[in-house]
Design goal:
single chain, about 110 residues, mainly beta, OB fold (Dihydrolipoamide Acetyltransferase, E2P), 5-stranded antiparallel sheet, 3-stranded antiparallel sheet, 2 helices, about 15% helix, about 40% strand
Length: about 110
């Protein structure tokens, strides 16, 4: 599996401006969107539910190497464990699964040997 160089590996993702909740971008495994909510899954098994769509985070996280592989999933390529091509699913290091859309399947093949 290829190691993807992220830009600004020590950058912070601000989850909530009022409570000053922040996480390191390198600790984020994947984002799962559900209408106007986004669940952020961390490498330590924790998850955070935020009241923004996944589109809200997309532009910022793409500059840090994240990939939008489905309308509901955005992944950190450094946390890919395995790829099931027949089911078009990525298994992440924390055990979460991300579905890959048919049109973005070529993206996953670049990062999985």
């Amino acid at each position: 599996m290829k190691k993807y160089e992220q830009k600004g590996n020590n950058s912070l993702l601000i989850l909530n401006h009022r409570t000053a909740k922040k996480v390191f971008i390198s600790d984020v495994v994947l984002l799962k969107g559900d209408i106007n909510y986004t669940t952020i899954f961390m490498d330590n098994g924790k998850k955070k539910v935020l009241a923004h769509s996944i589109k809200y985070y997309e532009e910022f996280l793409e500059t840090h190497g994240f990939l939008r592989v489905h309308k509901a999933f955005m992944i950190n390529p450094n946390h890919i464990k395995t790829y099931h091509q027949d089911e078009r699913k990525l298994i992440m290091t924390n055990g979460q699964q991300a579905v890959i859309s048919r049109r973005k399947e070529h993206i996953a093949k670049k990062f999985v040997a």
